[in-house]
Design a protein that fits this description.
Number of domains: 2
Number of strands: 18
Shape: elongated
Strand content: 15-25%
Length: 391
């Protein structure tokens, strides 16, 4: 007898990424990070830090602080959106004996309103507000626009006979004879009643729409969330269009380095666009996926063999200058990979997860006695004689 195998739909999920209570001001974070390196056995003067940040100007303070505390300007491991350039592992490892990589996507934060996603640009006239990570928002914007359109063009209503219905534009439906080739696709199987053999048939149809009977489970789900059915006309589904009710079938929009960012996010785009703060959710998601990818690249590479390495990933939160407050950055740790040239202890065999990493950092001193005086170094340069440089 032939074995029969059923198709299994394996779902990948990202882990909960907490922010509340875990954000560390950058001046304090970098000092603690340096001291954590010292605890791991790294040596003063032999550490080569590297950063994988966006190129935005609001990432400048973190880079200056890394220079100040580690005593050298950090190697650049970053591409747009906080993507790590894994092909730079080799060059990075050749620039120091003990290596540290700090990777972060970033998002703007307004402490007055508690909102994420924009940043005040003081170098622009009228200090205009713009996207805090322009490339990240650029990547998710086409999907966000489709989602906002769909939630306003899908309608719930109850007819005179008491049927609970949903009316959907044809362009959102994967018909057997005409599946969606580009765009948002509804998961009707999670919303409507099915006929025998799993066939989904409309209750009624019109020139550009199909109307279906909603399933008992979906009806209960809406009502449990406080939805009140109306028989006086269709109501747009709005916030009830949650991430499990749709997906995107799209060719990638990006053609430059941002295609790496889009590849990371596409699978989780329904969760991102339906989040309260899409930019924050996208940054959190990218950090997690990048950490897993980079750890795998480190383990497969010969670049860091025989070297001590700390790779730490997290979220940079950018706060613009506001009344009585200067420009600030905070860091929310996510995870860390550690390997030590003289043998990695059992406690670091697996990556440090968020709570454990935060505890490790907070156990370190805020004082770094090895930090350099940047002002004094600049003074020495200014006082140095001109060199007679010739070709």
């Amino acid at each position: 007898m032939l074995n029969r195998y059923r198709d299994v739909h394996v779902v990948r999920e990202v882990a909960p990424f907490k922010v509340d209570g875990l954000a560390i001001p950058y001046p304090e974070f970098v000092a603690r990070l340096y001291n954590f390196c010292m605890e791991l056995g790294f040596r003063k003067g032999f550490i080569m830090p590297s950063r994988a940040f966006c190129s935005d100007e609001n990432q400048g303070l973190p880079i200056i602080l890394l220079t100040k505390h580690f005593g050298t300007f950090p190697f650049n491991h970053g591409r747009v959106g906080g993507i790590v350039a894994v092909d730079r592992h080799g060059p990075h490892s050749h620039h120091g004996e003990d290596l540290m990589i700090l990777q972060a996507s970033h998002v703007g934060y307004d402490p007055k309103s508690g909102t994420y996603g924009t940043y005040n640009r003081p170098q622009m006239e009228d200090h205009c507000q713009s996207d805090s990570c322009g490339k990240l928002i650029h990547v998710i914007r086409p999907y966000l626009e489709q989602y906002l359109f769909a939630r306003n063009r899908i309608f719930l209503h109850k007819d005179v006979e008491g049927y609970h219905l949903i009316t959907v534009k044809n362009s959102f439906i994967d018909f057997a004879s005409h599946p969606v080739s580009q765009g948002l696709v509804l998961r009707l199987e999670n919303i409507v009643q099915e006929a025998n053999m799993g066939i989904i048939r409309p209750h009624t149809s019109a020139c550009t729409t199909q109307t279906y009977l909603v399933s008992d489970d979906f009806k209960k789900r809406l009502e449990d969330r406080g939805y009140k059915w109306s028989s006086t006309g269709g109501q747009s589904i709005g916030d009830f269009l949650t991430s499990d009710l749709f997906f995107f079938r799209e060719d990638f929009h990006e053609t430059d380095d941002a295609i790496l960012l889009e590849r990371n996010l596409i699978e989780f785009m329904p969760d991102i666009v339906s989040a309260k703060f899409p930019a924050l959710r996208a940054a959190k998601t990218n950090i997690q996926l990048e950490f897993a990818r980079v750890v795998e690249s480190i383990r497969r590479s010969d670049a860091y063999k025989g070297k001590s390495l700390l790779y730490i990933a997290g979220l940079n939160i950018d706060i613009p200058e506001i009344k009585d407050l200067p420009v600030m950055n905070y860091f929310v740790p996510w995870a860390a990979h550690i390997q030590l040239k003289d043998g990695t202890p059992a406690e670091y065999t697996h990556p440090l997860e968020q709570n454990e990493l935060f505890a490790k950092l907070m156990a370190q001193s805020m004082e770094n006695h090895d930090q350099i005086d940047l002002k004094e170094n600049i003074r020495r340069i200014l006082k140095a004689p001109w060199l007679d440089i010739r070709s």
